[in-house]
Design brief:
three-stranded antiparallel beta sheet; 19 helices; 18 strands; coiled coil
């Protein structure tokens, strides 16, 4: 028994002796393979554990950051005594998460921008706009390089550094404002002054600020009227200002009330109050006789300040006046100094409610135009900026009931504007629509010139609600532009959205606005956050600066810091 047990023990220990395997090479090989496999499994498990620990650590940090954010919000209530958590919490979550689909779509939009910019660079460099079909440039704005200046901030936000630097050199060395040209004060302000100021706010490069000041000085004589309400046309070389003949000598509401953001920002950045004083005098004058419904006709007499007998509209020639009432309030960080802008805007929103009608049978909400005491069942695509404006302003109401009412209206109007696109064979919207009982909507003027307004509203609604439906609608519209408007040498509008016949113009606002809003629609909320930036009517973001009592705001020039990035509306031309 004892001998047999010892024999078994001895037999077991022989497997541990090296000589056993030296005499049996196949078993040695098997042992080696087994050792390698075990080692690999152990190493793999350790790697997984380390990666898991890193992920847990990052998640804990995110949770801690959100807890700190909630703590700050709980300690900081708004003036109504309510805490608005939704916007800031949504922002934090979106900063953490970037949907792979959003990344893919954002890159598609960037590629579209590269195609548009590359075509402009190749065929129309330094000129105002590209005519893609004829592969030539045209100076629609007197030769101010409108597309180039309009595109500066889009290039910067998209991280297209090489293209931005080349454009910057052109601005520094070739941009010349001494033109014997009858310029639109409105268009030059929103595109050129706005584009240069935005490039300055984003990059901190003073060349843009200097150029913005230079062109603004050439525009200032337009405000030298008995009332301070500006003439809408000025000769850039001689400084002679006047109004267009087709208005009967009247100033246009949108053209006279859509320079406030840019000129206030210019005074803040330069320390010179004259720009701000000129444009704020306009609002002061209008506010003296501002109607209870907040709706002004599109023509105003610059000599008397009286409103002419003309239509009331949130479309062409009226639109951006109302937009800037809200946005100057936001630009000043909603302080008491700018509260009268908000008060005027809220009056206008009460008036807007009186213009809302709904179609049959589908109950599309739309904004009528008003002429005297009668309403016209017509809505411009230009008025599709309104859903975004209303949504943006809805969060400023003290009563939750009003806030929800206007947000719901914004969502209804956005659905209508989206259907402007979906209702045509090309899935691109016409210029305006008429509504008929029992027939919903029908396209009126049927061209499409690459306008941004609906995409702009989808951007705001997505940012403010987090509802990804607005991203899907935007993507459908982007694909329709790609299908119908993209050609080998750029992007063109359509002469007719029913037939798809193309025009020969790539509007500067397609790069400044349409593509920028598409890009931001698929970007995290940390890219141009709405609590730090306000967009002018040409989609040029300007920094929000707190306005305080006690006179003119201090000079911000020295503390300007570059923006960190990730890797009105125009009348337009039919081309």
């Amino acid at each position: 028994m004892a001998r047999g047990s010892r024999s078994v023990t001895s037999s077991s220990w022989r497997y541990c002796h090296p000589s056993y395997y030296l005499k049996r090479p196949k078993r040695l090989a098997l042992l080696f393979i087994g050792f390698v496999c075990v080692s690999f499994v152990v190493w793999d498990r350790q790697t997984l554990v380390r990666e898991h620990q890193v992920e847990v650590s990052e998640l804990r940090k995110e949770v801690t950051d959100l807890q700190h954010l909630l703590g700050e919000l709980n300690n900081k209530q708004d003036t109504s005594g309510k805490i608005d958590l939704s916007t800031k919490v949504t922002k934090s979550i979106k900063e953490v998460l970037d949907d792979p689909i959003d990344i893919q779509r954002r890159e598609k939009v960037k590629e579209a921008m590269l195609h548009a910019w590359g075509s402009y660079e190749k065929y129309a460099w330094g000129q105002d706009e590209l005519q893609p079909q004829s592969k030539s440039g045209v100076n629609s704005f007197g030769g101010l390089g409108a597309t180039l200046v309009d595109s500066l901030d889009t290039l910067y936000i998209m991280g297209l550094n090489e293209q931005f630097q080349k454009a910057r050199e052109w601005v520094a060395n070739s941009l010349d404002f001494n033109k014997d040209y009858e310029a639109s004060v409105f268009e030059t302000t929103i595109r050129v002054v706005g584009g240069l100021l935005s490039a300055y706010d984003l990059s901190g490069d003073k060349v843009f600020l200097d150029k913005a000041r230079e062109i603004a000085d050439r525009l200032l004589p337009a405000w030298n009227t008995p009332t301070g309400i500006p003439y809408n046309i000025i000769n850039l070389s001689h400084g002679r200002a006047h109004n267009p003949s087709w208005t009967g000598g009247e100033s246009i509401l949108a053209d006279s009330g859509t320079e406030q953001l840019e000129f206030i920002a210019l005074s803040q950045r330069t320390g010179d109050p004259k720009y701000q004083q000129k444009v704020e005098n306009v609002i002061t004058r209008l506010n003296k006789t501002f109607p209870d419904d907040g709706l002004l006709p599109i023509y105003i007499n610059p000599h008397s300040g009286a409103a002419g007998y003309s239509p009331v509209t949130f479309g062409a020639m009226g639109d951006s006046f109302y937009e800037y009432l809200l946005k100057v309030w936001i630009q000043g960080n909603k302080t008491s100094v700018v509260k009268h802008y908000r008060d005027m805007w809220e009056k206008s929103m009460k008036g807007l409610l009186s213009l809302i009608r709904r179609s049959t049978p589908s109950s599309f909400a739309y904004i009528c135009e008003k002429n005297g005491g009668s309403l016209t069942d017509k809505m411009d695509e230009l008025a599709c900026f309104a859903p975004g404006m209303i949504a943006l302003g809805s969060f400023g109401y003290s009563a939750a009931e009003d806030s929800q009412k206007f947000l719901s209206l914004a969502e209804e109007l956005a659905w209508t504007c989206y259907n402007f696109y979906q209702s045509t064979p090309t899935k691109l919207a016409g210029e305006n629509y008429f509504f008929h009982s029992g027939q919903d909507m029908s396209v009126g003027t049927s061209w499409n010139i690459l306008r941004p307004e609906t995409v702009e509203s989808l951007f705001y609604l997505w940012r403010l609600t987090g509802n990804k439906t607005y991203q899907e609608w935007g993507w459908n519209i982007f694909q329709a532009f790609e299908k119908n408007s993209r050609i080998e040498s750029g992007y063109v509008g359509l002469k007719d959205v029913n037939s798809g016949v193309k025009d020969n113009m790539m509007q500067s606002f397609f790069l400044a606005e349409t593509l920028k809003y598409f890009y931001l629609l698929f970007s995290p909320s940390s890219v141009i956050p709405l609590d730090e930036w306000v967009f002018n009517t040409e989609a040029h973001p300007l920094r929000i600066v707190t306005r305080n009592e006690g006179g003119f705001d201090k000079n911000l020039n020295e503390k300007q810091k570059p923006f960190s990035r990730i890797g009105g509306r125009k009348e337009g031309r039919s081309g």
